[in-house]
Design goal:
alpha/beta, 8-stranded parallel beta barrel, two-stranded antiparallel sheet, globular
Length: 304
């Protein structure tokens, strides 16, 4: 099992300089991938239910969010080995041809390091801004992936579906990778089963050990039912957690806490068949401290 780090594309540390530093140091430390994500806007209206029973605005760290694929193209020029992933881009906000060409271009610029982590999106305001009906989710998402994959295939590219159509055309560049991996951001059994039909992996958010293991099992079992080889598919878990200098002890968030605590969590996940864990903490405000902690975590994980 390998590890990844979310780039500081939002929150207190979001800046061009910090993005560059994290990318370079993550590669030097031996991390397998750096990750970005998409947020089109932060509505002024409260839309998130809180534990207090009230509805709140999206967190402050969403106030500024760098565009994910342009950020990764910049990072591609600063690095040589580390994979470049999105966790996630909301596919339905984009035409399939446009997003396919963006990922293919990133794969070219990075010499085959792109990971297309995509999701369906959830926020009504973002769907309205993109001029896409919320009801496009589901069947429209399946079709989007098929159209995008068609763009990565040989010319002439042609696709005709219920939601998307591509007249026979030359569409380039093509990715370096023979099969540019598509990971689906999903947190439900239905979503994992949907992804098992066509995706190269899933990218669930980690809440508990039991939930992560169940997601991996559901995905791989469903893939086998569709005649696919589960062994070649990827489970890449996203941990939106604090990494701290001291232990958090009982009640800590799963995969959060000190590097020593997290390492014990990672050992169990590796045994359960999880392939990758990416760490994201958008509220971290001390980059030196954070990179020191991530260096410690990677060293412990390597030695475990």
């Amino acid at each position: 099992m390998d590890l990844g780090i979310a780039l500081p594309t939002s929150g207190p540390l979001a800046s061009v300089g910090n993005i560059a530093r994290v990318a370079r140091e993550a590669e030097q430390l031996g991390y397998a991938a750096v990750w970005t994500y998409e947020r089109l806007l932060r509505p002024m209206a409260p839309i998130l239910p809180g534990p207090d029973g009230k509805v709140h605005r999206l967190p402050e760290y969403y106030r500024e969010t760098y565009e994910p694929l342009e950020t990764l193209s910049y990072v591609a020029a600063l690095t040589e080995r580390i994979k470049l992933g999105t966790s996630v881009v909301d596919a339905l906000y984009h035409p399939p041809v446009v997003l396919a060409r963006q990922y293919a271009t990133l794969d070219r610029l990075s010499n085959g390091r792109a990971i297309a982590g995509i999701g369906q999106g959830w926020m009504p305001q973002e769907f309205a801004t993109a001029n896409v009906p919320l009801q496009r989710r589901g069947a429209g998402f399946d079709e989007f992936v098929a159209a995008m994959r068609a763009c990565w295939g040989p010319d002439p590219v042609a696709y005709e579906g219920r939601f998307y159509g591509i007249e026979a055309s030359e569409i380039n560049p093509k990715p370096v990778q023979a099969r540019l991996p598509v990971l689906v951001g999903s947190n439900s059994d239905a979503g994992h089963r949907r992804a098992a039909r066509f995706a190269d992996g899933i990218n669930p958010i980690a809440f508990t050990y039991e939930q992560v293991v169940a997601a991996a099992a559901t995905f791989r079992e469903a893939a086998a039912e569709h005649g696919r080889d589960p062994a070649v598919l990827t489970v890449a878990v996203r941990a939106n957690v604090p990494v701290t200098t001291g232990p958090l002890g009982d009640g800590r968030p799963y995969l959060g806490g000190s590097p020593a605590e997290i390492t014990e969590d990672l050992k169990r996940l590796a045994e359960a068949g999880v392939d990758h864990v990416l760490f994201a903490n958008h509220e971290q405000d001390d980059l030196d401290e954070y990179l020191g902690l991530m260096a410690d975590l990677q060293a412990r994980h390597t030695q475990a």
